[in-house]
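Worked problem 6 (solution included).
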Amino acid sequence: MTNETKTYLESTQSLFTKIATDNPQLEAAARVMARKIADGGLIHVIGPGGHSNIAVEEVLWRAGGLVPINSILDAGTNLIHGAKRSNYVERTVGYAKQVLDSYRVGREPGEVIIIVNAYGINPMTIDTVEEAKRRKMTSIAITTNSFADKLAPDHPSRHPSAKNLYQEADYWINCHVPYGDAVVEVEGVSQKTGPTATLCNVFTMNLLMIETIRQLSQMGIDPPVWMSANLPGGDEKNKRNEDTYASRIRHL
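Solution. The predicted structure is:
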């Protein structure tokens, strides 16, 4: 094992430990999700920014994951349509409203939305949480404060209001992404490598899903959970959930 590999391994292990042990609102947020699912509702999930979409894809039709997850995967910020293009779109004020409208999100008070964006400062992110407030939704943020607390109010990636997701959401689950994202120094290379944001976002998201499933079980509910389609009986078991939710989850 090289020193660089060891650094990355130890850094990510440390971050995962911090996420798992330093998140006082995790159980409360999961409780809100469990109650909504118990009432027959969906949990909306959005990643307002390029790589944030990866954490949203992670919980769509995922083996071991909750079924009632409505992943919002708008083409505007999806990297497959252009990485720099997604950067332009996530900085477009007012764009989030149109996305939520197109997915028919927030039509009934009390809907739950998870907003995952490690930096938590761009216009689409802030517009999303503000729209959630206007629509009387409960918002759960997966983000960190490491960037939000350091970047100037007039930084070009910020929303004009200079608001921060971690302060605007109803619940904040800290993904603990370090300032700068990358954590590995390589001799002779000026820029650090070894990015952490996607790993931290996905790990945090799965902790939230696990805790929600645990709380549903404590409520006496056997929650709908996807089975790997690659296991014997997987297709048959999943089909029942697909038939139940296909009309409610756009990308299913």
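Discussion: Residues 30 and 211 are 6 Å apart (CA to CA).
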